[in-house]
Amino acid sequence: MLYDLVLERWGSYVSVFDAVPVFTMDGTWVGEAASPDAIGDLIEAHENGGMR
After folding, report:
1. What is the C-alpha separation between 39 and 13, in angstroms, rounded?
2. Over the Cα atoms of the chain, what is R_g?
3. What mean pLDDT do residues 28-42 have?
4. Contact 20, 39 (CB under 8 A)
5. By CB neighbour count within 10 A (0-12 exposed, 13-18 middle, 19+ buried), where does 31 fall?
6. What is the reported pTM?
């Protein structure tokens, strides 16, 4: 049952809220953000070659 899941999309990135994992639309794992506010930073780091 997926009724409690909330998906958010940022271009080709997708996040499942409450768990806050982030992955691309093709299923590539990006990482897990500590909070929804940190998702943008996680995406930016992924696009720039990884966490710094």
Report:
1. 10
2. 11
3. 83
4. yes
5. middle
6. 0.57
